[in-house]
Amino acid sequence: MKGLIMNSIPETFGSLVFNLPTMKARLPKETYVSLKRTIDEGKHLDIGVAHVVANAMKDWAVEHGVTHYTHWFQPMTGITAEKHDSFISPTEDDSKIIMEFSGKELVQGEPDASSFPSGGLRATFEARGYTAWDPTAYAFIKGNTLYIPTVFCSYGGEALDQKTPLLRSMEALNRQALRVLKLFGSTDVKHVNTSVGPEQEYFLIDKEMFDRRKDLIYTGRTLFGANPPKGQELDDHYFGAIKPRVAAFMQELDEELWKLGVLAKTEHNEAAPAQHELAPIYRSTNTATDDNQLIMEMMQQVAKRHGLVCLLHEKPFEGVNGSGKHNNWSLSTNTGVNLLSPGETPYENAQFLLFLCAVIQAVDNYQDLLRISVASAGNDHRLGANEAPPAIVSMFLGDELTSILESIENDTPYLAAEKTQMRLGVHILPKFPKDTTDRNRTSPFAFTGNKFEFRMLGSANSISMTNVMINTAVAESLRLYADELECADDFNEAIHGLIKRTIKAHKRIIFNGNGYGETWRKEAVKQRGLLDLPTTPDCLPHLLDQKNIELFTRHKVLTETELRSRYDVMLENYCKVINIEGRTMVDMARKEILPAICGYVNELSDTVISKRAAFSDINCDFESETAVRLSDLSASIDKNIKTLDKTLTAALNVSDITERAVYYKDKVIKAMDTLREEADKAEMLTAEKYWPIPTYGDLLFGVR
Predict the structure, then answer these.
(1) What is the largest CA-CA distance in the chain?
(2) What helix, strand, coil percent values describe the chain, rounded to 5?
(3) What percent of the chain clears pLDDT 90, i.e. is strictly above it?
(4) pLDDT tens, residue by residue, 167-195
(5) 199: helix, coil or strand?
(6) Cβ neighbours of 353 (radius 10 Å)
(7) Which is it for strands 68-72 and 145-154: parallel, antiparallel or unpaired?
């Protein structure tokens, strides 16, 4: 590997992270024990301990050439934020400096909160906000700066970030899961944690071509572009040989991520040309969320070093697969027990079945929240497009588990599926047990053996909100179960009745078939009563449904005020994104596309004139017909530009944010689609030398 010998990888991994081994080596024993207790049990951190930790952290960082530190946080922008301060402090006579870092500086920072989205939580003239150290997430070095993961809150204590609700939801789930496990006699379990492995999809395109497209620069996706002769129809890119330039990028990306302690594991070509995927190993949800933000950031930084640009938009190209982010979610104890692992005989495992039912009930009762957690203007293009799950939430359990649940519901005997061995037809390959459950790529929420894969996330989404929703919804199911079972006279009888009742009440959410078919949509909505929320403006209002407000406030994950702020922030973002896209389309069509068409029409017209001057009876059908068709198209494009421009202006005059979002969905996007359709037709008729922007063929097949 570039700059990294394979034998040194174990030593290099996490070398830029102030992790537990580093803490143990550099902190006094008492300080380390106290900090470890804070990390493991959430105990209060004494300021004296913080001072010792801060000094050790500073010394370690300075040894690595670090000069600055920053409180690294995740505001409601969907990306990370940082403000850098140096370690320097003047001596008494100001003639020299020393390198200092106090416990107070470690624990709390004071950034300007006025310019971050708050959804009305604070007025713009109220600038103060606070970042507070998250001891459960390790500090790390990037460049010449020590990064300290933090939460971010307002002067009044309201959460202004993605991290705070996540930590609250993890604690809520832990609290309720421990109640249930205690009833099963698991008194040795001290903590229940959620773990996540988010698979990250992305596109790589040539930077030169990127720089020539305003739509990619301003919006992250192509707003114009006719499909090339070849796309992904041959299925020759998926898992195909990785091109040398891309392989070099992946190699350096792995190296950078490993230094930061990110467990980057699997990389391959995805379905669409120029599309790829990186998958990490599972980690605690809190850590996995930080890691995923680092992955997205490092992808973009490393790509530039290779003359590439990494596109994280959910649908950068029309007509080819978009990019998602599969959120593999599981639940385990501090004793190493995966609570979603069925074992050899899942039908005999009451504990597994109860936790399985908790997830089923959560997904059914709060399907709206799961849809909301992946809502964005970008992801709306991707969901339901035969490349991602539909916008209708359902669960896949596989035939065996479904049969087990049906037998419990109906009080009928279950005949366990016979264990079979599968041979691959090659004698040198070992036999291995045949899996009783196939995968279902069309399911939004699929059970995959000992975890659930939530497949609706868009590639640019933070995984935080999704896991907040899952954690809190499952915590509510477990709360209800614990309330009932703690009062039961006969535990075994009570748990059987509870599981049976849950299956009967929530089996509508279980669907093992093809989620892409129109028949499923009809069945889901008309027969099963599931929610069909295709766009962001359709689903977001449900965030403020009374049942959802009660859920979050009951478990102390989000207050009603914090919920309303998120509603406003998400809708505002949706409107702003589409407005930027619309304005970019107007700009490109007026300044680039129309002039290009006119230039080619002029050439065609001149050709006709010159040919007929030389030969009066010469055939000029191609030139004449093409010029006429392009002239008609340019007139139509000009008309559509004016319509879109007018529609965008009208949208800004809609004062109510909910109504404005609906206007953008119904009016602005329709006007954008109409303009694009005519422009893409013109591209197919215009000579290549006149077309002003790189084509889909250039972008998708330009990296060799």
Answers:
(1) 104
(2) 50, 15, 35
(3) 72
(4) 999 999 999 999 999 999 999 999 999 99
(5) strand
(6) 23
(7) parallel
In a 3-state reduction of DSSP, which class is residue 512? coil
- In this predicted structure, the answer to whether residue 435 has a pLDDT above a threshold of 60 is no
* CATH architecture type of domain 573-701: Up-down Bundle (1.20)
Place of tokens 């929420």: 445
Which part of the chain has CATH 1.20.120.1560? 573-701
* Cα R_g (the chain), whole angstroms: 28
Cite the residue boundaries of each domain of the chain with CATH code 3.10.20.70. Answer: 6-161
CATH topology (fold) of 6-161: Ubiquitin-like (UB roll) (3.10.20)
Query: Nearest 10 degrees: CA dihedral of 682, 686, 690, 695?
Result: 70
Secondary structure (3-state) at 171: helix
Residue 463: what residue type?
A: I
Fold exhibited by the domain 169-225+234-416+429-558 = Creatine Kinase; Chain A, domain 2 (3.30.590)
Cα gap 8→259, rounded to integer Å: 11
- What residue spans in the chain does CATH classification 3.30.590.10 cover? 169-225+234-416+429-558
> What are the angstrom distances between the C-alpha of 513 and each of 271, 362, 404, 523, 525?
22, 21, 17, 11, 15
- Residue pair 458/323 in contact (Cβ under 8 Å)? The answer is yes
Residue 434 has pLDDT above 70, yes or no: no
| DSSP per-residue string spanning 294-314 | HHHHHHHHHHHHTTEEEE--S
Q: DSSP secondary-structure letter at 695?
A: -
Dist. CA 35–CA 135, nearest whole Å: 8
Per-residue tokens: 598: 């006119």
Buried b (16+ CB within 10 A) or exposed e, 287-317: bbbbbbbbbbebbeebbeebebbbbbbbbbb
pLDDT in tens, 372-400: 999 999 999 999 776 778 899 999 998 88
Convert 611-653 into a string of H (helix), E (strand) and C (coil): HHHHCCCCCCHHHHHHHHHHHHHHHHHHHHHHHHHHHHHHHHC
pTM of the model: 0.93
Q: Which residue did the predictor score with more confidence, 591 or 403?
A: 591
Length of the chain: 704
